[in-house]
Specification:
- This protein has about 190 residues and is α/β, with parallel strands linked by helices.
- The chain folds into 2 domains: about 1-55, no CATH class; about 55-185, Luciferase-like domain (TIM Barrel), CATH 3.20.20.30.
- Helices cover about 45% and strands about 10% of the residues.
- The protein is built from 7 helices and 5 strands, in the order αβαβαβααβαβα.
- It has helices spanning about 20-35, 65-75, 85-100, 120-130, 135-140, 150-160, 175-185; strands spanning about 60, 75-80, 110-115, 145, 165-170.
- Strands 1, 2, 3, 4 and 5 form a 5-stranded parallel sheet that branches.
- α2 (about 65-75) links the parallel β1 and β2.
- α2 crosses α3 (about 85-100).
- The radius of gyration is 19 Å and the shape is globular.
- One of its GO terms (molecular function) is monooxygenase activity.
- It comes from Saccharopolyspora gloriosae.
- Keywords: Monooxygenase, Oxidoreductase.
- This is Alkanesulfonate monooxygenase SsuD/methylene tetrahydromethanopterin reductase-like flavin-dependent oxidoreductase (Luciferase family).
Length: about 190
């Protein structure tokens, strides 16, 4: 979870880009209250059954606020599909923040990895389109795995960094991409 930086994601009146961090903080408090069984609205009834567990949340982003939210509200940190030279320092910062906040154990570390095995050019175009309003360094540095070799390298790099989970995200809308990926990673 992160606050985001794309202006087009904040077009609803009352939910503009300005103030989105404070709104997220308020929403996080509401989520925790609801999951703890607090009544919702004006009635006495909780929104969830008794015994409902807190939903684990991962936080991502490149600011000190992102790490602060992770240690206060989350179970770990999620990094984007960027070069490991960019994400590795963020994972280290997440571990440091976790330790400095007195949290027990270690944060769960997860990374996203885009892939397009059957149509790499379409995948690149989709990523560029999605990130066209994001900071330029994100759009130009997004990593796209397009071959068996790049998938295997991604797994090796993040395994060596101690990442707990890699979430491969198809950059194209072809369901056969999942089979292509499974043939490599299983």
């Amino acid at each position: 979870m992160g606050v985001g930086s794309r202006g087009d994601e904040f077009t609803v009146p009352g939910h503009e880009l300005h103030g989105h961090g404070a709104r997220l903080e308020s929403d996080l408090a509401t989520y925790r209250e609801v999951w703890a069984g607090a009544p919702v609205g004006n009635g006495p009834n909780p929104a969830v059954p008794s015994g409902t567990r807190q939903v684990p949340m991962l936080f991502g982003g490149y600011s000190a606020h992102a790490l602060d939210r992770m240690v206060r509200w989350g179970e770990g940190y999620i990094g984007g599909s960027l070069p490991s030279s960019t994400t590795a320092p963020r994972f280290e910062a997440a571990k440091r923040a976790w330790h400095e906040a007195g949290r027990q154990g270690a944060p769960k570390l997860v990374v996203l990895a885009y892939f397009a095995l059957g149509a790499p050019e379409a995948g690149r175009a989709n990523i560029q389109d999605f990130y066209r309003l994001a900071p330029k360094e994100i759009a130009t540095n997004a990593v796209l795995c397009t071959t068996r070799k790049t998938i295997e390298q991604t797994v090796t790099v993040y395994t060596d960094l101690g990442i707990d989970e890699i979430i491969f995200v198809s950059a194209v809308d072809d369901p056969d991409e999942i089979t292509r990926l499974a043939d490599i990673v299983t």
